[in-house]
Design a protein that fits this description.
This protein has 2 domains: about 1-200, Rossmann fold (3-Layer(aba) Sandwich); about 210-279, Roll (Methionyl-tRNA Fmet Formyltransferase, Chain A, domain 2). It contains 7 helices and 11 strands. It has helices spanning about 10-20, 45-55, 70-75, 95-100, 120-125, 165-185, 220-230, and strands spanning about 1-5, 25-30, 60-65, 85, 105-110, 130-140, 150-155, 240-245, 245-255, 260-265, 270-279. The strands form 2 sheets. A 7-stranded mixed β-sheet has the order 3-2-1-4-5-6-7, sandwiched between helices. Strands 8-9-11-10 form a 4-stranded antiparallel β-sheet. Strand 1 (about 1-5), helix 1 (about 10-20) and strand 2 form a beta-alpha-beta unit. It is elongated.
């Protein structure tokens, strides 16, 4: 089986490539999105990510950076591939791209679908105070993360202070375990288990107001707001708030008393600001 790999980073490509080769599938090309939307501006940092992918790409593999959906579909057709395997791509695949390979496309998504479809499933799980996340591998259709589920696993714990590198290491181990079964299901013609639309939710980009703390909210809501933004910035940033008469970025909070921390009154009690930076 000849496969085209689609991912967001050199690490993502390496993971997909390793699993495909181990299971007897042959990667023939990599596809990476340099923009968040088709024909959109190149996103900040895209050049560095593309360079890292090039540095790690095996000999003989092409790297495709499509500019629009038409170019994506036309390019995929040139490879005569059997399947697209995706892990991290911000565009919806048009029908023409899904039809460019013999078996269509499958996608790796870091939630227990149909919960948290969309680009930020882990961030929303943290924001909502979920105790864990999961991994779903599903067939792709023209909508985001709505195709039939091939394999799925839950139970990846979310610590109070979620360290990105640690969490993604556990997630990658789960993907490496699940993907071979998903590829076998595709080869066997399994369409996947239909998702329950009445249970679906969407994990889109955070609204602008989420970058600011409103102390009139509950302390658990604010604590999870700080956790989600800390995770999204790898611990380097957080929401803006007024603390003890100063405007700061809140990097870490605690719902339990911490020596030396500043206690701020929320709607239902105090929250301790453990770490912050002047804004």
């Amino acid at each position: 089986m000849r496969v085209i790999l689609v991912s967001y980073s050199a690490q993502g490509f390496a993971l997909l490539h390793r699993v495909c080769e181990r299971t007897g599938r042959t990667p023939v090309a990599y596809v990476h999105a340099r923009s968040l939307r088709p024909a959109g501006p190149t996103r900040s940092g895209a050049g560095q990510v593309a360079g890292e992918i090039v540095d790690g790409i095996p000999p003989g593999i092409d790297l495709i950076l499509p500019g629009n959906k038409k170019a994506l579909a036309e390019t995929l057709c040139l490879y005569g591939a059997d399947l697209v395997v995706c892990y991290g791509f911000p565009w919806k695949f048009p029908a023409s791209a899904l039809a460019a390979t013999r078996y269509g496309a499958v996608n790796v998504h870091t939630s227990t679908l149909p919960k948290y479809r969309g680009p930020l499933p882990v961030h929303w799980a943290i924001r909502n105070g979920d105790p864990d996340i999961g991994v779903s591998i599903h067939r792709m259709d023209e909508e985001f993360d709505s195709g039939g589920i091939l394999v799925q696993e839950s139970g990846i714990a979310l610590a109070d202070d979620v360290i990105p590198d640690q969490l993604w290491s556990v997630v990658d181990t789960c993907i490496e375990r699940l993907l071979p079964a998903a590829l076998d299901h595709v080869a066997d013609g399994f369409p996947g288990t239909a998702q329950r639309e009445d249970q679906a939710s969407y994990a889109g980009w955070m609204e602008p107001g989420f970058s600011y703390v409103d102390w009139n909210h509950t302390r658990s809501r604010i604590h999870n707001q700080v956790r989600a933004l800390r995770f999204g910035s790898s611990g380097r940033s957080g929401p803006i708030a007024d603390v003890a008469g100063e405007r700061v970025r809140v990097l870490r909070t605690s719902v339990d008393p911490v020596g030396g921390a500043v206690a701020v009154r929320c709607a239902d009690g105090p929250l301790w600001v453990v770490e912050s930076l002047p804004e």
